[in-house]
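Per reviewer request, we include the raw input and output of the structure prediction for the construct analysed in the revised manuscript.
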Amino acid sequence: MKMSCEGLGTLLESLIKRTEILINEKIRSGSIAKIKRPYYKIEAKNFHFDNDDKVFRWNMKRVILEKEEYVPTGEDLRNIENEITASTSFSSAKEKIISDYHIKANDANNWIRSLVNRAVRTTLRGESTKSADSILLFIQDLNEAPLTVHFTCYLTGIFLELPEVGISASVRIRQLRRDDVEYSYVESPEPVEAFKYVNRIFTPTVLESSLRVKHGNYIHWEESILDTLRLFRVGAIFSIQSMYSWDTIFRSSSPTSISQQAFPILPRYTIKDDEVTGLQSFFNELHPKIYSLYEEKSESPIAIALKRYQDALELMPLNEVNKITTAIMCLEALYLKAREREELTYRLSSRIAKVSSLIGYQALEIKAKISQAYSMRSTFVHGGALPKKDVENASNLLPMILEMCRVSLSLFLLLSPELTKDSLLSLIDDSMISVDSHNKLQKTIGNISSYLNKSQSEYGPIRAIRVTQQVEIV
């Protein structure tokens, strides 16, 4: 429950001001002095994009510099802390937090100390102007307000022609930059030696986003963004390394990193300069619908189909028959009604062919490929041996099946919730025998056709650079 914070902000402001005064007095007196410390920077030399392998490449060099900074002694810090904790502002703020928020005295004491320690660090860095932000974060933490989480994800399966693309107000994707791979530290973690090894993973494209959420719900946001990008074009878009951080004073806020290690040969695509506006419109239309599926823990046909599509893109090891089988399950979830048990191949292939013909695909070709893929799926699921020619043809069949998954999912999402699955399937069936129904379906799809452009994906190795390179010492 949100309590009144009237007066608390003033008390905390007084506390931080007193901390800043003490620090600045000790700096002026010379008690806290600037000292020079070794400063190591890992620089990326010859940073460039390798168009053949679709990765950025660089050579790493460690440069030894000097950095001046204020470094208080342990005694200085203890004296500052003792004076602050003994102040009237500290005790008043502590009592107000205990009474207004029903917090234990020890917790209130530790939380205010965290705020003071933050003020010490920012003052030593010459960043006193950030004190107001610190107070705001502190009060938000007390009220258990949603946290702002910041994402940085290194993505496979997608490339950019432009250095950066803003997809929405809070989401952007960009090319890998030199400053992503460069880093620095004040003290060497080991004796200076001829070589240093680092172990990080980088991909050509980086996703960045911020979101205010209740702590722990941020994964849905990231996954829904990736799902939307997978539907804009067919692309095996996954985060090889994801890093998260939160704006908070005393709630759990340790930066988190999650890594995946597999880099298969999967579909990928490039966002061209003239596609940016289309991507922004597509994202703003579909992403809220996909995010709501996660938040509602939906088990609807669309949610099931979306998961099957994701599985088909993600499946390892690379096996086209497995992928086709999973992709067909995606299409079944969309195009077959719950109680349909007969003529499944005909129903599935005919419905998909009809829809695809109104988007610009060749209906007869689609119908034949869906029938062939469904036959492979049935044989595979029931434990039969596939003819050699079917196995050899699977790699040629897979791109179109994935494309039908992408287009169909986009279609069903765009038309939901106004048009239910069964209503849409009935309209598709009727359109094959009724001119009026055909015209109605054509108009329905025509209204969203700008979001259903054909994919321009390519199939090739999705590589990432794992940095375990020799670093030259300078």
